[in-house]
Amino acid sequence: MNWPRIIVDGLAMSLLFNAAVGVGFLLWPQAYSTMFPKEIKEAAAPYVDKGEVRKMKLLLCPLYLALFLWWGVSAGLAGIRGFWPLFWTGYVEMTMVSVSDFIILDCWLPGKVRHMIKGAEHCKAWERKEWLKTLAIPEHALGWTLLVCPIAALAVAGIGSLF
Q1: Closest Cα partner for 147 from 91, 93, 103?
Q2: How confident is the model at residue 162 (pLDDT cuts 50, 70, 90)?
Q3: What contacts 94, CB < 8 A, 6 or more positions away?
């Protein structure tokens, strides 16, 4: 495995992912409330525009596809060969995205953006302890680790094998 390449790709994709999600949030904050804890979702629901939710998904879906393609092509061009080296390359890089998402979007950002979600400004779910307990820790400790990272790793291994 090419560790310097893995680290650089992981950092680059972490930056791209967090920037794209951050810009998307600034453009359509109400749409992002659909991904927040239940209390915030329910409080913000009357203000959510279905068109904005569609735009948010049109931003995020290609972003994930771009991540997978970048990693697969990059790993293949870096000379990483074989299913398992490619799989672990993708897993490590997606884990870096997960950690950066956790730190930036789940630990630092919520307290700063709560005023942007109409109807949910005063929800208890915005409190750091509550946010971490109901969303961030389960999402990143279980969801990303056991589901998103392995799927990304499989995609990287498949794409990388083509090169």
Answers
A1: 91
A2: confident
A3: 67, 71, 144, 148, 149, 152, 153
